[in-house]
Amino acid sequence: MRPLFEDPPAVIADEIRRVVPPVEEILIQVKSDLGCDGRFGEPWVIVTPRRFALIDDGEEPLHVPLNAIRKARAEAIVGGGCLIIERIGEPAIQIPYTNSLVQTFGEVAVNLNLLLEGKPPVLPTQFDATRCRRCGRLLPERGGICPACIRKIDTLLRLLSYLRPYAKMAIALVVLTLASTLLDLAPPLIIRQIIDDVLTQRGEIGLLFQFAGALLGINILAWCAGVVRRWLNNSVGCRAAADLRMDLYRALQFLPLRFHEKRKVGSLVSRMTNDAELVEDYLSFDLPFILSNSLLFFGILLLLFVMNWRLACLVVLPIPVIVLVGSLLWRRLEGTWRRWSVRWSRLSSHLNESIKGIRVVKAFTREDYEARRFDSRNLLVMQASIAAERTCLVFFLVSNFVMSFGLFLVWYFGGLQIIRQELTLGALTAFIAYLWMVYQPLRWFGDFYSFMVRAFAGAERIFEVIDALPEPFKNPDAAPLAEMRGKVVFEDVAFGYDPGKPVLQGINFEVEAGEMIGLVGRSGAGKSTLINLVCRFYDITRGSIRVDDRDLRDIRLEDLRGSIGMVAQQTLLFSGTVAMNIAYGRPNASTAEIIEAARAANAHEFIIRLPDGYDYQVGENGNKFSGGEKQRIAIARAILQNPRILILDEATSSLDTATEHRIQEAIAHLVKGRTTFAIAHRLSTLRSADRLFLLDRGKIVETGTHAELIARRGQFYRLVQAYRKTVASIDIEDRKVPA
What we know:
Layout (H helix, E strand, L loop, with lengths): L9 H10 L8 E4 L12 E4 L3 E5 L6 E4 L3 E9 L2 E8 L5 E6 L3 H15 L35 H10 L5 H33 L5 H50 L2 H5 L3 H43 L1 H8 L2 H38 L1 H6 L3 H53 L5 H19 L1 H22 L21 E8 L8 E8 L4 E5 L6 H8 L7 E6 L2 E2 L5 H6 L1 E4 L10 H5 L8 H10 L3 H5 L18 H15 L3 E5 L7 H14 L4 E5 L11 E6 L2 E6 L1 H7 L2 H22 L3
Parallel strand pairs: 10-15, 10-16, 13-14, 14-15
Antiparallel strand pairs: 1-2, 2-3, 3-4, 5-6, 6-7, 8-9, 8-11, 11-12, 16-17
Helix pairs in contact: 4-5, 4-7, 4-12, 5-7, 5-13, 7-8, 7-9, 7-12, 7-13, 8-11, 9-11, 9-13, 11-12, 11-13, 17-19, 21-22
């Protein structure tokens, strides 16, 4: 089913047939969840190539020809939004809706406007779901997975698949576990022989020595098997967990920016650390424990029924009660640990945010405020932990109480059999020993069960990231790009970060190879979005982008981005040396090439003054450098890459006037022969551009050289005048300050 085409009930279907002629194709057929009076209702919106219709049960249908509509827009209101249909000469039609339908009606507005412009609609094929399509529950994250609908057996099998590369070690572990189980079953049988054949009958000392020696030998073998098993457990579990973390990290690297923007950094880091650690503990300790104790449990039960089936029935009598209590607590415990995982993720996000922004926190003296925010999130984590531990404690206490009845019954009825000479004392002693060996795993089952639930919840969150759709790096239909010339063409390009909220609309231009384009406009006009589309950080909603007469989506991503150099407004340096950061795009570059790029970026002088020169460690995010120094290193990085398309996003914003002049000279040499897109709020820095594109509200409203746009006295002229007044007022204020 299409996102913008829903099946109506019979009453509404009859009304639609009455309003819409059969010859007209219904393009959009969706319902709102609020009536036109703002109360809960289900008005239906119908759009065909010729008309717009609004049908509400109990109300007279309203239908308007498209040529009587001026515009459609979706506006945000508190708790939702409102689809507004502006009519020519008539009052506007307003259809409110809640937040869950923001995407739907945003797309309705976009496609209705396309029809009004005489263009074909671009109907979406899918939306990021907010609720589970199977059970209807709200999803933890938009477009995420529903934890309630995931089959736990699938999660377990997928975790076990990470053991496949270590199959030999895993098989050895299973064999050792089986051998250890057999060794654990032997001591009670030997004790029975000691009591019945030696102690009660005053047997030979030599026989006692043999039995005691057998016990010692079995204990030594069991100890050796336990040491090897523990080593194998850790080795296999840690290797499998390392592979899982590697898959998670690779997935994070190749996921599109849209995925990262929808999630907090702390939440993703929590999956790499906390969730992965839970899975590692499960694979290293919990899973081997469950395997060994399951074998021991069923082995002992079989042995007990062989020894004395009447007493064995008394032993298993409490087990169904314990299993029943555990099954009743399953969902409760699962939900509790899921809440704990989500709350821990939020705590990690806050911790990451507050530490990264510590300068801002201190500048505004908000330490106490951030501490209170942390305390509130920490309190929620504590409450979830307490709730989970309380549930486990209930299970532990109930299971202990129920197990005591089995022990009482075996002592009583076993004692009666001894009095009647139906059972020996040694056999009863062995039976009691086996009884505790059966109950012991069940006694700790609550703890290991809670660990398993936490590990599964963490694994599901990890697999959600791994299964997310990556960027099309391995698209088999994409062709390699041997050599890029740098010609860029936009044809009727439209794009929005969120469905129904266009940022760019109807963008058309052609840039020849080697041409320098300056992008100007107010903040939020769409300048950075446009260059993001050139790099294919996002795929366009409508239209086409061509590079060297080839559609951007038909070019291999590594070839495309490998031919684009970028100097962003927010410069990022990685922990490592200065040379490593300059050569980040070309790790095999020689030292001479690195120095030459640094000279061209006017960075060589300050680099050689550092204690270790080009081997100087820049620190986390380059925190040892000023903003201007970081930008010069970023410019050197772009120069060394030798791109065919160069993107300068406020590349000189952090430089003083003198340094900016020298950088501009370096950039002037750099842009020669390269297609360049430059963004700058200092409009004077774009005088050398071949053309300027002035963007306003997602559209290119003026195009021309700097002189042509000034002479035109349009929006660009007014923007320049406003900029000059701002600079002049700053200069006047600076003169007022005493030297």
